[in-house]
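Support request, priority: normal
Reporter: lab tech (M.K.)
Component: structure prediction queue

Hi team, I submitted a job for ATP-dependent 6-phosphofructokinase from Nothobranchius kuhntae yesterday, and the status page still shows it as pending. I've pasted the exact input below so you can check whether something in the sequence is tripping the parser. The sequence length should be 788 residues. Please let me know if I need to resubmit or if it's stuck on your end.
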Amino acid sequence: MAQPDTKKIFFENLSGAGKAIAVLTSGGDAQGMNAAVRAVVRMGIYVGAKVYLIHEGYQGMVDGGENIKEATWEGVSSMLQVGGTVIGSARCKDFRSHEGRLKAAHNLVRHGITNLCVIGGDGSLTGANLFREEWSGLLAELVEQGLIEADAVQKYSALHIVGMVGSIDNDFCGTDMTIGTDSALHRIIEVVDAIMTTAQSHQRTFVLEVMGRHCGYLALVSALACGADWVFFPEMPPEDGWEDNMCQKLSENRADKKRLNIIIVAEGAIDCRNKAITPDYIKDLVVGRLGLDTRVTILGHVQRGGTPSAFDRILASRMGVEAVVALLEASADTPACVVSLVGNEAVRLPLMECVQITQEVQKAMDEKKFDEAVRLRGRSFEHNLSTYRLLASRKADSELPNSSFNVAVLNVGAPAAGMNAAVRSAVRVGITEGHKMFAVNDGFEGFHKGQIKEISWGDVGGWTGQGGSLLGTKRTLPGKHLDKIAEQMRIHNINALLVIGGFEAYMGLLELSSARDKYSEFCVPMVMIPATVSNNIPGSDLSIGSDTALNAITDTCDRIKQSASGTKRRVFIIETMGGYCGYLATVGGLAAGADAVYIFEEPFDIRDLQTNVEHLTHKMKTSIQRGLVLRNENCNENFTTDFIYQLYSEEGRGVFDCRKNILGHMQQGGAPSPFDRNFGTKVAAKAVQWITRMLKESYKGGIVFANSEESVCLLGMRRRAMVFQPLAQLQGETDFVHRIPKDQWWLKLRPVMKILAKYKIDYDVSESGQLEHVTQVRPKESDFSACI
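Reply from support: The job had stalled in the queue. We restarted it manually and it finished. Here are the results:
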């Protein structure tokens, strides 16, 4: 059911035959670098190029010898789930000298390498660009010294460079997310969640130092994701008197019966006088002024370590494939570029434009132009900061605008991790906007039963990190109870609805809006935020909860693969959730390195199953003697998980044995991932601001009356932007029978997954990123980082 594309350009036109590609990792390591290396190697081999691994970064390129080795398909197996970089990274003084770069050029020419993929930070990428600019001069010198033949200058005349940004700090301008950032946030949030339990027990205050000497992204987003009381980072130095303000807020929180405080500090945090703000200074301040039991935790290199998150694996795999396409398409005139992510799209940007803006950020900070530095960081950073400021402190009642509007919030459908973060954000932003906020328990079922009560700022404290739905959620649709729901809206004078949920939420709002002619109570602004692990809501590329589910799938697959590595010759069949939507199976398969993934959207028959069995039989003859097959729960009514398990067992008899695993509701449970917490927080804040705007526009003659199509919307992520879309317009995009959108963006990731599993298929490059300029990359509404 993938949509046919009349303008498809297949990879045959971009052969790598006769070309050599080298990949290296440089600078600080970041989780996900190995996934990027694996993708470059496998995509390179797939197109017929020779691919080389350069060990120990630029130092290995300068030293040559055993540091430059040809890569094999099997050689990059088992790298996907490993943190750091298995090919090594080193700071290299030699490469900064002309002599060092001359040696590096000689070593590349020896191997016939003229395509270089560099994974690192801005320093590493700047070095690569200088190397490219000097290339023809370096070759001329090598000819003069008699180290290479004269015809080699013509043969290897141009060096093509593509960069991928690997940095846990997310400090590179032009990309929404760098490889490693999401995994570092996972490490921070794991620690914060653990610390919260002990802090609660002893009523302690904890001061946590996170990395970010020059960029506060980790501090800012982790503060948003855990609901920290205070945060310090370089781009937002506090004004004079911040000590009094912070202590006042901490004491107010304790007066509200909050048993703990969390303060997050970036290692590069400064005050407005450029004086460093250290964790110990904050601790002494809190102990001295408030007498609170206060502890300091410095996370350090824990943030760089551990296994990469699902997000980073997918990001790195997509970028690695895109990098090879970019290298094959490059001509002698193509500038060095970085492949990066804006919204949900892969783009190519001129490397030096990105580096220049990144350097301008530091210049603006040195000149104390902090607002300019935040603007240069890009819209992702700006929106995180504006959302944090909205939620950071509770205004006194006298300072709040008096809106006299009542807004109800409810969860509908199955629980999804991140729902509670969205509810917290909605309630607090609503109160800040002057509204009275009401919580509806148990979805539409609770609504018609009158389970509605006012909810305060303090009621949602500590909700960000809680999984499931604390409001309670049910799949019940409102259709049979419209009269009672209208009555409850009249009793509580509800002027607007915010519904957070899955396909039932979508259907429910359609039912309410279609009943507006009969019930005037439904003529109010209504907005839906997609929250479902299945990610099957039309109008949005992503849903709250799907990232947490992907991480649950990926973690389980990692453990299963590890068990198979001991027993050898074993294939695991794993069933994922998703209803008829194959998102979890496909994207989980890409993140876990699956050999095959069966989904409803891509029909398959017994011949396809046989092909997959033969593929695995051949794989068992190599050094990778294990297999991983994912199956979406409703992919085919006849080819069930049991059927596929029995077929594989029979056909693989004597070659491999099989095991099956149904993941079930573990995909819905657990603490929300940093991405889902952040996504939920920002989307809900934006939704409530839309409600405020709509209420002002539709308030006439003392009543709210909104019955236009535009007053019932879904807030979703579309490619690069967050968009409010009328539900009426989304009906044409919906397959109501199978509860999925008719067109799903992630289907274009399936060829990537198949190529990386060594299937020979057509690869459509018509949607590959085109070279853009940084200033054109961010549309007005583009709201944040998202990968997948």
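The radius of gyration is 27 Å. The longest helix spans residues 674-698. Let us know if anything else looks off. Ticket resolved.
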